[in-house]
Structure formats: structure tokens, C-alpha cells
Amino acid sequence: MAIFVGIFLILPGLTGIHSISTVSKVMVEKGGSISIPCFYESKYTDNVKYLCKGCKWRICSYEVKTNQYNSTKYLISDDQNQGVVTWTINDLTEEDTDCYWCVMEINQGRDDGNCFIVFVTGKGDATLYVDSQEVTGFIGDQITIDCHYRGSKQIKWCRTGGEGPTSCIKDSGKKDDTKVTINRNTPGVITVTMSELRERSSGWYWCTDEDLQMPVHVTIKERPTTKPTTEQTGTHSSSSNHLLSFIIPLCLLLLIVTVAVLTWFMLKRRKSPATAEDEQTVTYSTVSHVRKTTAQCEEDVTYCNVTNRKSTSGQVEAIDVRVTYSTLALQR
Known about the structure:
The chain is α+β, with helices and mostly antiparallel strands.
């Protein structure tokens, strides 16, 4: 640790300490990740930024640059509007305990940078940490951040940025018209509540015990409305039109099928054969009458095929009578 102290004593002579600002030291548990903000002046907006690992400035190793692709180990994000570049180091191991330089690359000149220390501890050994480094809230609402710590040092809540010096609050007060309340009722935890949030409340903050810092990025935005947007309304109308274009032809088809079935049943009923009451048929069988006289005359009269048919209209049709007279023989 003595070597780290010595390095910080000579940093002002080696780097542009006034034009670039960042944390001094963070502590992270093994296997975790850490995001570090580095603020720079507007004159460095278009410059390439890079992260260099190693406590000796001239022999540090380049890890990631803004003009190169990120790796799974190192991520870089440059917000040129706010003048802050953020370094993220993932999957930390003991070998990652080292000095890191936040550097602005200067063409045809000496690069400008500032240094911070990452100290990796075992599981459960971190003496200052937060549950999450990313916190989001809505305008007019409030957010809560728990800073966990060990020891007897006084924990403060600070806001930092490239626009001015870091300012801190120990108890309660206001920062940029945002109300800040600090609760110390739980041992080992200070609870920071930020209320009356505004859009300008967004930015980088950190918990600090003067030796360590733990950065927290706060994002404040408009609360989304529950009213459907124009795009959603148009989508719903389009869906309704598609549904109607399907239902109307289906209803017409069902109506046509129903009418066709009813018509078929009616026609079938009309074409059915008449019942026994609609048509009556009377048939008389052959009638024969034989009369013999005392004079031994023999007269044969035969009636045959007498048929009486009654039509369905109730009128009697012409009677078809056939009479056959046999030979008449008289003997005296």
C-alpha cells in the first residue's frame, strides 16, 4: 500500500490533474465488477480516450480505447455531451488490484491523464459498497441508495462532475434543488434518500469515507404515461378493421347457408307422395247374375270390370261399365 501512497504524492507533477478528475480508490469483491467515471474538459471531447493499467506511467499497458471494440473484460463508454468517459472492469480477480490511468490521447504532444486504484478483496471483505451502481428514478419522485460500510469513519454522500468541484453532504440538505436526507439508524448502513427529483438530478454520485469511494450513477427521467400513444391507437384501429373484414363475410356466408337449407327442406316436403286420404280407389270385382226360368230358359248375364274411381278433387270420374251378354237360348 505504501507504493500507492507514493504514487499519489507525485501525480500532480506527472498528469493534468486539473483537467481530468476521477475517484482515488475503490474496493471490490473478487468476481464482481466496477464502473469508474472519468471527467474531462471540453477541449478533450473529440480526443481518443484509453485505460492504461500499471502504476508506472511510462510502462503501463493499454487495456481499451474509445476507437477500438470493447472486450468482455473491459468496457468503455464516452458521453461527449456530459464530458465523462466510463470504464467498466468485469470478473475482477486479485491480479486486477493495480493502478489504472484514465488518459486523453494528444496528437503530437504528451498525453494527459489521471490515476485511480482498484483494490480487489475476498468475498464479504469489502469495507464500502452499494447494492447497485445504477439507479433510475422519475421526475418528482424519490430514490433510495444504501451505502454499506465497515469501521467508524464518517460516511458522506457526494456529487461529482466535470462542471465543478466535488461537493458532499454528511446529514441532510439540498444539492441542485434536490432534497437529500441521510439516515444512519441501521448499523453499518447509511440510507440516502433523494426526493423532489428533477432531470438535472441525473449524474454521478458516490459514497465516501475519505479513503474509499463507491460511485453510483443516477438517471432521472419522465414517468411514462398510461394513455395509448398515436402509434398504439393506430395499431388497435388496424387490428379492429382486420377483425371486421373477417367477421362480416363470415356472417353473410352463414346467412346464405341457412336460407339454402331451409329452402331445400320446403321443396322436399312439397314433393312428397300423397297420403291415403288424398286418393281413394274403389274396385268392384266381377259380378255374375244367373237367372233360370221355369220354361227352362237359361239366361246368362255377366257384368264385369265395373270400376268407380273418385278423384282427389271429390268428383266422380266417368264410370267405365262393360256389359257382356252371353248367348241367349230359349227352349220351349
